[in-house]
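Incident log, support desk, overnight shift.

02:14 A customer reports that sequence design results differ from what the structure should imply. Their input is reproduced verbatim below. On-call engineer (initials T.W.) acknowledged and began investigating.
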């Protein structure tokens, strides 16, 4: 397996989805590849967050209910040395029915867990693949031979850098020391198309340092702006810009 192929296995490795032979080869590759090591760390953290997001704790009163039921259920005497009546279901028939019902319920529960785990794995794979594609696209912009960079000071002591590649027709915004947005708000980035603002995505409200691959092509945009919007973003700016930056031209 070539080194180029190994670079594409970070998502599958983070989800423990590689065959044993490929896993061993990839782990040897990790010993010398800091970029893949970092990407695996980030993808593993993403998968863990997905798991926590859908996990549901047991009801608070579950333990108390079980203990209470134990005290009220009569223990069945040993069957050794006695015979149960065969006329009608009797106690054995009832307990067999209870046991069968319990087995069916358990099977259904474990089946539900299996479905849930499978869905979680699929969601994690999709999230990991999307993150990997974005990281690859972001790296392509930053490493493009025609990449041009422009930096400026933003409000509150923050600093912003925009990198534009005409060959990729994409742009990346790098922020450092950004103050968190107000509660329930988010920073939204906009392309400036000759005065018309076109949404280019949202920044992570919890990250003071962030690297954002702007959504959509640069096309004829001459710059970008940042506004404070309600969580989830807006179709058009609803506040004055907290930052305006021109794209580099030379």
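02:41 Re-run completed on a clean worker. Output:
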């Amino acid at each position: 397996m070539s080194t180029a192929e190994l670079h594409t296995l970070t998502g599958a490795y983070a989800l423990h989805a590689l065959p044993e032979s490929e896993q061993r080869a990839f782990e040897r590759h990790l010993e010398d590849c800091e970029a893949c090591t970092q990407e695996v760390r980030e993808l593993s953290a993403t998968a863990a967050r997905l798991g926590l997001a859908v996990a549901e704790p047991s009801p608070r009163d579950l333990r108390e209910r079980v203990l209470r039921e134990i005290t009220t259920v009569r223990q069945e005497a040993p069957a050794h040395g006695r015979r149960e009546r065969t006329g009608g279901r009797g106690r054995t028939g009832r307990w067999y029915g209870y046991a069968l019902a319990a087995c069916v319920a358990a099977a259904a529960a474990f089946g539900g867990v299996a479905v849930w785990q499978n869905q979680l794995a699929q969601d994690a794979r999709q999230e990991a693949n999307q993150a990997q594609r974005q990281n690859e696209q972001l790296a392509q912009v930053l490493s493009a031979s025609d990449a041009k960079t422009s930096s400026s000071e933003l409000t509150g002591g923050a600093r912003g850098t925009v990198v534009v590649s005409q060959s990729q027709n994409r742009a990346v915004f790098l922020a450092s020391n950004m103050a968190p947005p107000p509660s329930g708000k988010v920073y939204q980035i906009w392309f400036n198309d000759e005065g018309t603002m076109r949404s280019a995505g949202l920044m992570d409200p919890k990250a003071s340092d962030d690297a954002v691959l702007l959504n959509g092509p640069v096309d004829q945009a001459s710059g970008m702006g940042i506004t404070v919007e309600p969580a989830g973003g807006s179709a058009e700016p609803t506040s004055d810009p907290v930052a305006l930056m021109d794209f580099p031209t030379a």
